[in-house]
Amino acid sequence: MNDWIRELPKAELHIHIEGSLEPELMFALADRHQMTLPYNSIEAAHQAYQFQDLQSFLDLYYAGANVLCTEQDFYDLTWAYLQRADKQTIRHTEIFFDPQTHTQRGIAFEVAIAGIHQALVDGQSQLGISSGLILCFLRHLSAEDAMKTLEDALPYQDWIVGVGLDSSERGHPPSKFTAVFDRARAHGLLTVAHAGEEGPPEYIWEAIDSLKVSRIDHGVRSPEDPKLMAWLKEQQIPLTVCPLSNIELGVFETLEQHPIKQLLDAGLRVTVNSDDPAYFGGYVQENFMAIYEALNLSQQDLYQLAKNSFLSSFVSESAKEIAIAELDAYMHQTLQELPPLYNTL
Ligand code: HPA
Ligand code: ZN
């Protein structure tokens, strides 16, 4: 099954590129810039990655990002992720980046976006991975700061498909950013937002009503609100779910308690994603494998999750059709190896 999942064509829609910074690259970049890390070794960094909640993770995540200084650093970070994605048959990826994490420490907006963008261009030409870039505002900072960041981004609008909202959720409701998201949409940018990860279902409603999002990132607290569940199903608003992240941050105690199967069975458009793979112990393949094992998913479920990833992406309808045709062909090819699965399709 691990091989089958690895080769299943899929898209990733929820990955913070700064969260793909593996300790190996962190040490290499610290060396490059003669910086000292708070860890003595790669092993010590891995051991330090034990989180109680979202904030305890964010503290290490922002500290880790300090080694990202030059355009080359951002290129190397993004290229390393794309190579991993390629090995896991990720055909399309929509990547978040947090410009304020870098501008706050004196790294110009252009440095981060130029390095990431060039790697994404090379990912398309050298690996055949299509991509989109989503600028995330840090919700623990002010709406004014977010608006200023949007202004910084507008000259690079051709490189960005949309804007999102991440960082500490509790106490920072989506409605705080209504004006910024209005302005982003007026410029033709799509919108997404983290909501219902640690925050309540009301934040999911706000993201839909105030920020007019095309997708909800996480959204795993939706089952607490039956009306919301009905709306998400009726509107087919995608949820970009990150199972290993939710366990590592204590949103759910065990994978067996994770609601992804419940959400899928209820007819919501659920996808599987890695969030911050260097910190949470796995990329998309490992997330698929973990829920397959813990929740007893069928191959039909895995197929639906992969199909949802293409349906929920920001590509053209024709690109979706091509991607899903490849996915269907894969199912046909593997039919003989996996007979019970296909009978249910
Ligand atoms: N939640 C909120 N903000 C984040 C996350 C997350 O899982 N990862 C990186 N920034
Ligand atoms: Zn996230």
UniProtKB/TrEMBL annotation:
Gene Ontology molecular functions: adenine deaminase activity; zinc ion binding
Annotated ranges, domain Adenosine deaminase: 9-328
Catalysed conversion reaction: adenine + H2O + H(+) = hypoxanthine + NH4(+)
Superkingdom of origin organism: Bacteria
Cofactor note: Binds 1 zinc ion per subunit.
One Pfam family hit: A_deaminase
Aminoacyl-tRNA synthetase in keyword set: no
Gene Ontology biological process terms from the UniProt entry: adenine catabolic process; hypoxanthine salvage; nucleotide metabolic process
Transmembrane segments: none
Site (Important for catalytic activity): 218
InterPro entries noted in UniProt: A_deaminase_dom (IPR001365), ADE (IPR028892), Ado/ade_deaminase (IPR006330), Metal_Hydrolase (IPR032466)
UniProt KW keywords: Hydrolase, Metal-binding, Nucleotide metabolism, Zinc
E.C. code: 3.5.4.2
Residues given in the record as substrate binding sites: 276
Name of the top EC class for this enzyme: hydrolase
Amino-acid positions noted as binding Zn(2+) in the UniProt annotation, renumbered to this chain: 14, 16, 194, 275
Catalytic residues as annotated in Swiss-Prot or TrEMBL: 197
Function: Catalyzes the hydrolytic deamination of adenine to hypoxanthine. Plays an important role in the purine salvage pathway and in nitrogen catabolism.
Family per record: Belongs to the metallo-dependent hydrolases superfamily. Adenosine and AMP deaminases family. Adenine deaminase type 2 subfamily.
Protein name: Adenine deaminase
